[in-house]
């Protein structure tokens, strides 16, 4: 999403010559070669807000694309009234090739996939250390989704003012994934945002996690505050400077190039779409132990080498248990 990565600024407003103006009108259906490029910021019941140049434009998708064809993060070609004025409705005529697709299903046995976000580079998995209690298996599920979609995972542990991060970090540090720990006073001082921002620069990052973990609080700390800059964009998208989350929402990162995408809270992260053989990718700490496995080992069978390897103390039994649970629910399609 680098193309749109720059924070829109008053100085950036340029007037582009309108190629429509001097073209003779015909009754041949336009082929949309004069479409503008935009990025989808929100989707709400068939209405999409798109960023076109520096303007927030309300649009719907052309009928031939299907009503739910475009998702947050999509790069689109858009035609019609692109003024961004009230009561205008533009039309999305093409959806660009996606660099990544973050999918989830409501449950493992639910074949209906929703695309959460398109074109994200990174998945920030937000977990509170308390209130609500951390759920390592939900973290593991999100990691599976991230590795499967080719997104870089970032573990964000919030509310360290309420409980210590040590126990969770003992597990997740070994995975070699990036992590940040935040707490209330650091949110207020801006220090938390400064530290998290370092991991977000130049990337589009989708924030996922259980409801109440502090996603929106963090996202709000990361998007522009300065009235003269992109706050206009935030206001146009959300109707006010701050927002609550009912659907995914892409916002420009303040003070750096990048996008943050807030998403509604999730209770589970269904992985129906993930091939069971790819689940192990989210357990890099266990991968070396699979060297002694029989060919095409499911890692959930009696000959699996992981049991002995973990028993030798190379990784924690809890991690193997988590892997097995995920594999079992993927196979038998039970809830987790
Ligand atoms: N103690 C504490 N509370 C926090 C922290 N971050 C967020 N909260 C609170 O947690 C609640 C849920 O936050 P919210 O951002 O709406 O969570 P979301 O549902 O994940 O978007 C709010 O009352 C926040 O004020 C933190 O670091 N420490
Ligand atoms: Mg929220
Ligand atoms: Zn195995």
UniProtKB/TrEMBL annotation:
Cofactor remark from the record: Binds 1 zinc ion per subunit.
GO function term, MF aspect, one: rRNA binding
Highest taxon, organism lineage: Bacteria
Residues that coordinate or bind Zn(2+): 293, 297, 299, 304
Protein residues bound to GTP: 158-161, 209-217
Gene name in the database record: rsgA
Protein's name according to its UniProt entry: Small ribosomal subunit biogenesis GTPase RsgA
Stretches the record annotates as Disordered: 1-36
């Amino acid at each position: 999403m680098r193309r749109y990565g720059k924070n829109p600024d008053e100085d950036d407003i340029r007037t582009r010559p309108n190629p429509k103006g001097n073209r003779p009108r015909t009754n041949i259906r336009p082929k949309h070669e004069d479409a503008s490029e935009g990025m989808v910021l929100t989707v709400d019941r068939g209405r999409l807000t798109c960023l076109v140049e520096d303007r927030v434009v309300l649009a719907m998708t052309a009928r031939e694309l299907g009503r739910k064809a475009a998702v947050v993060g999509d790069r689109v070609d858009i035609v019609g009234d692109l003024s961004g004025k009230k009561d205008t409705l533009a039309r999305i005529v093409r959806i660009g090739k996606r660099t990544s697709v973050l999918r989830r299903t409501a449950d493992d046995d639910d074949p209906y996939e929703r695309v959460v976000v398109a074109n994200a580079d990174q998945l920030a998995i937000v977990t509170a250390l308390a209130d609500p209690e951390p759920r390592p298996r939900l973290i593991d599920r999100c990691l599976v989704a991230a590795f499967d979609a080719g997104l870089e995972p970032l573990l964000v542990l919030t509310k360290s003012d309420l409980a210590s991060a040590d126990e969770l970090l003992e597990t997740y540090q070994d995975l070699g994934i990036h992590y940040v720990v935040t707490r209330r006073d650091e949110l207020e001082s801006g220090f938390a945002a400064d530290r998290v921002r370092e991991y977000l620069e130049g990337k589009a990052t989708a924030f996922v996690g259980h409801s109440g973990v502090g996603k929106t609080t963090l996202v709000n700390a990361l998007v522009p505050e300065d009235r003269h800059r992109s706050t206009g964009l935030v206001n146009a998208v959300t109707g006010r400077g701050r927002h609550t989350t009912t659907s995914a929402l892409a916002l420009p990162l303040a003070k750096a190039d990048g996008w943050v995408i807030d998403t509604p809270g999730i209770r589970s992260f269904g992985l129906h779409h993930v091939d069971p053989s790819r689940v192990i990718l989210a357990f890099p700490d266990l991968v070396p132990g699979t060297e002694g496995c029989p060919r095409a080992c499911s890692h959930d069978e009696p000959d699996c080498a992981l049991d002995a390897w973990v028993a030798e103390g190379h990784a924690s039994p809890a991690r193997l248990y988590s892997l097995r649970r995920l594999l079992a629910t993927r196979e038998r399609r039970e809830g987790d």
